[in-house]
Amino acid sequence: MPTARDIVDQLSRLLPPERVLSAPSDLEHYGRDWTRQVAPAPSAVVLPGSVEQVQALVAWARRTGVPLVPSGGRTGLSGGAVAANGEVVVAMDRMNRVLGFDAADRRLRVQAGVVTESVQREARARGLLYPVDFASRGSSQIGGNIATNAGGIKVLRYGLTRQWVSGLKVVTGTGDVLDLNQGLVKNATGYDLRHLFIGSEGTLGFIVEADLVLAPQPPEQQVMVLAVPALEALMPLFDRLRSGLVLGAFEFFTDQALSHVLAHGGKRPFQGSAPFYVLAEFDADDEAALACFEAAADAGEVADGVVSQSRAQAAELWHLREGITESLASRTPYKNDVSVRIGEVPAFLSRMQALFQREYPQFEVVWFGHLGDGNLHISVLRPQDMAADRFAAECGRVTRLLGEVLHEMGGSISAEHGLGLLKKPFLRYVRSEEEIALMRGLKRVFDPDGILNPGKVVDL
């Protein structure tokens, strides 16, 4: 392996020298994502500006044996973009152009470094919608969204990122450029390799361009926040609302989560409180919303509620849900992002609450998530007097117990943030040995030298 100085010198001959970063502040900034459990330690950071430059970097990595870590907006929560062992970070920030729009196909072609919110703005400018949405929209990049098959707050209505990618251009670990599916709606010509790269976390190749399908703008939306008095009422309420309204989102958070948002400037939606809250977004319909609320109240499913009467109020209500992650950040939480079948959510919540009360009596555990698609986020807050390594070890121990419950219930240890470094040890709870062996085989085909995002998903 070349030294860090040699790596920087060699890379400066492949790319313009100003696109090769080695200052300690740059290495720290680009070498990690939103997780803080693994210290970043890349040898260098590069910012390619073209597909050809990405190919040149792959060829160099194969010659030298220095691995590459793809990097987008670094908003992941599993350590998927962390470079901790002298790798070179390949940041896609400069590959950030919109390449074209096809009105007949409603297809937007973009480079991987385009920020999600920019894609949403491009869609709105054309009277359309890019429906994949989440709180990190202002910093996450499309390449990273695709690499983790990002979900977010609109999955109930629009599905995951996978549904909105009609084509991909990728550079594999052998340096080959693959133009996959090319935006076709129908293409029955064997294996659709595009879908191997969606959710692959940069372990098979670099996503450099994407064809994104845009949707029609929905009708005007309203937001409702409801106070739910008991765990057992959550799923009957969900069934009631999706039967009476055209739902776009059905989100869940606890009173504990709400308290953290309120402490960071959020506005309490109503005077009363409850152990659980639901946020529902739906096609505007005051009469239907009132009828649903009254029926739910009569059934004991809700204790209070509010419906937005303006876009500003809707944004305030959404902040109660979207502001949770930011409000917890100072406590360096250990995060689990899990999923079960929708019908299993109440039983899973009940079992997990009992598990955490037994195993985490000294920790504060905050629950929230996308209840309408079975995805729950668990944030365990580190006590201020506990060392970070001891806290991580203790949380890892309980995550293994969580994995056993998920295995028993047919759930997933990672619903939408990938495996990265942190969740990879728990893959065996979700995938069989036969599946994992096949995943290793795919890794060998596309990245035979093991230079792409090593240590993530599976090992060679």
Automatic annotation (TrEMBL):
Residues 38-217 form the FAD-binding PCMH-type domain. Pfam families: FAD-oxidase_C (PF02913), FAD_binding_4 (PF01565). The keyword Translocase does not apply. SUPFAM superfamilies: FAD-binding/transporter-associated domain-like, FAD-linked oxidases, C-terminal domain. Its cofactor is FAD. InterPro entries: FAD-bd_oxidored_4_C (IPR004113), FAD-bd_PCMH (IPR016166), FAD-bd_PCMH-like_sf (IPR036318), FAD-bd_PCMH_sub1 (IPR016167), FAD-bd_PCMH_sub2 (IPR016169), FAD-linked_Oxase-like_C (IPR016164), FAD-oxidored/transferase_4 (IPR051264), Oxid_FAD_bind_N (IPR006094). GO terms for biological process: respiratory electron transport chain. PROSITE patterns: FAD_PCMH. Belongs to the FAD-binding oxidoreductase/transferase type 4 family. This is FAD-binding oxidoreductase. It comes from Alkalisalibacterium limincola. The lineage of its organism: Bacteria, Pseudomonadati, Pseudomonadota, Gammaproteobacteria, Lysobacterales.
